[in-house]
Design goal:
Chain A: InterPro entries: ETF_a/b_N, ETF_b, ETF_beta_N, Rossmann-like_a/b/a_fold. The complex is a heterodimer. By secondary structure, chain A is of the alpha/beta class. Chain A is 28% helix and 27% strand. In chain B, helix 3 (71-85) packs across helix 4 (96-109). The chains are: A alpha/beta, B alpha/beta. Chains A and B meet through strand 2, helix 3, helix 4, strand 7 and strand 8 of A and helix 3, helix 4, strand 7, strand 9 and strand 10 of B.
């Protein structure tokens, strides 16, 4: 039994960032990288299922990225995932979510997991594509934005809640194996213990190339092309200056005037 | 031939209003000679034809299926429409349902794909879709070389919903036979609000991650009460259980529908939070980070510490 959890190392920007010379991305010197927030929840959900079933199934985390993205894998391994896989090839430099899904589909074929959990979206680009595109390629059952899950390893159906707009939830069953995208709040992700962080260094991480997965450059063409990236013109708030006391006094005036 | 197609969305038999925004999105690139079709997959699709007969819609494609949300069925409909009609664009509203079926439909069609699109344009023959990146700090213009069909999801609140009236032709389409892997089992309505009325409140003060600790929440409850405000919050505060879900403003929480004054304290302003409040005429943002995106939609901004401001505010009420 196995649950595969694709994770992403996301980038936040320094306050004073600059564009790359070709104008199609931000200069990576201005990246602050971290494991995607949503992935803390998908990893946790897999670990909870594993623990509830008595240390079964195996939890395997996988990421598509260069060696810098080992940090994201090690973070997931330190929480308790059993094994990691990192896929990289320079041809993936401009990979979009659909390309990543194509690569992940090959990893699924190789690993033959019983379930795949992804984050509902990434904190940097918020495309909400990778998991459900992966399901489409595999032809697997799927559900997005899952905020409650009842699944026992080996079961042929899972019961879940989809978190809809306005606080409404839909209760749904889905045939397994399935690809589920996991929403924030489904659980309380654990922090890695010092022991876990130490152990993570010893855990196996397989490094795979496109070739290892039977893919070539032509088979990982993206579904979109970045023409340019730029800083939007933003609306500008009228700033209230002064000491905190002066700022609060002006805010109080505004409140009294506007609350009627 | 319709070359622009919107996938209408219904939930439990009720048409979703965001469908009209997706129609408006495609109308923004509709040229002379283009036809815009709207496909509705529902238990009684004819019941929705009237509501979809808005200006600019040339055809309503009625697909009789279940009212249940079945991503497999929607993907099969899109695959059939894609193959039979070779549309330039197929679009849906960027919402929780579309997240489930649009990416899967795109890979099955081998189409172009862009989600959460806030602007569309034509550059000669090229379709250019604009979306945000790096947590809204940049915009990205995307095009789709070599793709005859492009699938899009349209961000809510960016296009004025299509209105007026039209007289589209109505075409019936058989639902493709589909192996549906999901079963609708029921609904769980939002938790009892306990009398908290975010949608009905005219004055809301909300707190976000900046509050840092559960022990700090109480003082904001007290301050809100003394000011005559309803205390709201962003998602992490409700997820942590520090305030009830009924106080959460945003996409998976409440829409501040009646609000005239919204004071956001320690809230960075994620897209999901903005969904619930960016329409408010008077937004005041208090945040230590001058780059926080909340300042780009606020009327007034205070770059400062929410606790210092709150303590000083107490002296005025």
């Amino acid at each position: 039994m196995k649950i595969l959890v694709p994770v992403k190392q996301v980038a936040a920007l320094d306050d004073e960032f600059e564009m790359r010379d070709d104008g199609r991305d931000v200069d990576e010197d201005f990246f602050e990288t971290d494991l995607n927030e949503f992935d803390h929840y998908s990893v946790e959900e897999a670990l909870l299922i594993k623990e509830a079933a008595g240390d079964e199934p195996e939890v395997v985390v996988v990421t598509i990225g260069n060696e810098d993205t080992d940090d994201a894998l090690r973070t997931a391994l330190a929480k308790g995932a059993d094994r990691g896989i990192r896929v990289w090839d320079d041809a993936l430099e401009n990979a979009d979510s659909v390309t990543v899904a194509k690569v992940l589909a090959k990893v699924v074929e190789k690993e033959k997991p019983d379930m795949v959990f992804t984050g509902a979206q990434s904190a940097d680009f918020s495309s909400a594509v990778t998991g459900m595109a992966l399901a489409g390629i595999l032809g697997w059952p799927h559900a997005a934005v899952v905020n409650k899950l009842d699944y026992k390893p080996g079961a042929d159906r899972a019961t879940l809640h989809r978190e809809l707009e306005g606080g409404l939830e839909e209760i749904m069953t889905v045939r397994c194996p399935a690809v589920l995208s996991i929403q924030l709040g489904i659980n309380e992700p654990r922090y890695a213990s010092l022991r876990g962080i130490k152990q993570a260094q010893q855990k196996q991480v397989d490094e795979l190339s496109l070739d290892d997965l039977g893919l070539d450059e032509g088979s990982v063409a993206p579904a979109s092309n970045v023409r340019r990236m730029y800083v939007p013109e933003k609306g500008q708030a009228e700033l209230i200056e002064g000491t905190p006391a002066e700022q609060a006094a002006r805010l109080a005036e505004i409140i009294k005037e506007l609350r009627g | 031939m319709a070359n622009l197609i919107v996938i209408a969305e219904q939930r439990d038999g009720a048409l979703r209003e965001t469908t009209l925004e997706a129609i408006a999105g495609l109308k923004s690139i509709k040229q002379d000679g283009d036809e815009l079709a709207v496909a509705i997959v529902a238990g009684d699709p004819q019941a929705h034809v009237q509501a979809l007969s808005v200006e600019g819609v040339d055809e309503v494609i009625a697909v009789k299926a279940s009212d249940d949300f079945q991503p497999d069925q929607l993907e099969a409909v899109i695959a059939a429409l894609g193959q039979e009609r070779k549309p330039r664009v197929i679009a849906a509203a960027h919402g929780v349902d579309a997240w489930s079926y649009i990416p899967a439909a795109a890979v099955k069609l081998d189409s172009g794909l862009a989600t959460d699109v806030m602007k569309l344009a034509l550059d000669g023959d090229d379709l250019v879709a604009t979306r945000a990146g790096y947590a809204e700090k940049v915009l990205v213009d995307l095009d789709f070389p070599g793709k005859d069909t492009v699938l899009l999801t349209i961000r809510g609140g960016t296009f004025e919903p299509a209105g007026g009236s039209g007289s589209p032709k109505v075409t019936e389409m058989n639902a493709p036979e589909t192996d549906v892997a999901t079963t609708h089992e029921g609904w769980q309505p939002p938790a009892d609000s306990g009398g908290i009325d975010i949608p009905g409140s005219e004055f809301i003060m909300s707190i976000g991650r900046g509050v840092a600790d559960e022990a700090n929440v109480e003082q904001f409850l007290e301050l809100a009460e003394s000011m005559g405000a309803t205390l709201g919050c962003s998602r992490p505060i409700a997820d942590n259980g520090w305030l009830p879900k009924a106080r959460q403003v945003g996409q998976s929480g409440q829409l501040a529908a009646s609000c005239k004054l919204y004071v956001a304290m320690g809230i960075s302003g994620s897209v999901q939070h903005q969904w619930g409040m960016k329409h408010v005429e008077n937004i005041v943002a208090v945040n230590t980070d001058p780059e926080a995106s909340i300042f780009s939609i606020a009327r007034y901004g205070i770059v400062g510490d929410m606790f210092e401001i709150a303590e000083e505010l107490e002296n005025h009420f």
